[in-house]
Design goal:
CATH class: Alpha Beta
Number of helices: 6
Radius of gyration: 16 Å
Strand content: 15-25%
Largest sheet: 8 strands, mixed
Helix content: 25-40%
CATH architecture: 3-Layer(aba) Sandwich
Order of helices and strands: EEEHEHHEHEEHEH
CATH superfamily: Alpha/Beta hydrolase fold, catalytic domain
Distance between the termini: 21 Å
CATH topology: Rossmann fold
Structural class: alpha/beta
Number of domains: 1
Number of strands: 8
Length: 233
């Protein structure tokens, strides 16, 4: 695991955590953080995918308002709010493009082998990235805020997208994730929707009380097969 500095198109400098795979011609994965920063959980995710065979990069999306290496507390969202409020669509797109370009230029990974995965805030970002970047595939875990702000980007999804939702999630009720699915279907987008009936928001994060091991393991298996079918892995 290493830290790299990325020059973003708006003139800012963003740090990111990189985990390189030892595999020959490894695919690339843009790992997009929760609202709590590139914390131990996100670093664990990056390492887990690297062990599977990906070269991963997790950009620090709060870099304009938080110092490098900043991490929030799952029990104190107020400490997160100022950084979350400072995000803009344009800034996020620029940040994710910088991460994507690092995978292409520095890790020398072909576009057809680069995907994105995101969690919570990052799940929204994965959907956003797939509307702006030439990804080969995108995976979104319980991405809030797509409805209503980003529904118009359903028709701009470049690659197949796999989306996970929790049936017990009070933050993203069924009418919201159904609206996302309906918009993608109406737009003719290639999408797969999975609802874990007994899972809550944040079910993939073992640092949260809402962690659901069975849903997390099943989701990972689906992700890997999704990426194999799309030729990324």
């Amino acid at each position: 695991m290493e830290r790299v500095k990325l020059n973003v198109s708006d003139g800012t400098v963003m740090e990111a955590v990189v985990v390189r795979s030892g595999a020959v011609e490894a695919p690339g994965l843009l790992v997009l953080q929760e609202a709590f920063g590139v914390n131990q959980h996100i670093r664990n995710v990056a390492e887990r995918y690297a062990k599977i065979g990906f070269t991963t990069i997790a950009p620090e999306l709060f870099h304009r308002t938080a110092p490098p290496g900043w991490e929030g507390s799952y029990g104190d969202f107020e400490s997160v709010r100022q950084h979350f409020a400072g995000l803009t669509t344009e800034g996020l797109i620029a940040d994710m493009r910088a991460g994507y370009e690092w995978l292409g230029k520095e890790a020398k990974i072909a576009p057809q082998r680069i995907a994105a995965v995101g969690y919570c805030m990052g799940g929204r970002c994965a959907y956003l990235a797939n509307s702006e970047l030439p990804l080969a595939a995108a995976i979104s875990y319980y991405g809030g805020g797509i409805v209503p702000d980003l529904l118009d980007r359903a028709s701009r999804q470049h690659a197949p997208i796999l989306m996970f939702w929790g049936g017990l999630d009070q933050h993203i009720p069924p009418e919201q994730y159904r609206a996302v699915a309906d918009a993608l279907t109406a737009a003719g987008a290639d999408h797969t929707q999975v609802v874990f009936a007994k899972a809550d928001h944040g079910f993939n994060c073992d640092a949260r009380p809402s962690y659901n091991e069975s849903a997390s393991r099943e989701a990972l298996a689906l992700v890997l097969e999704f990426l194999r079918v799309r030729g990324v892995l």
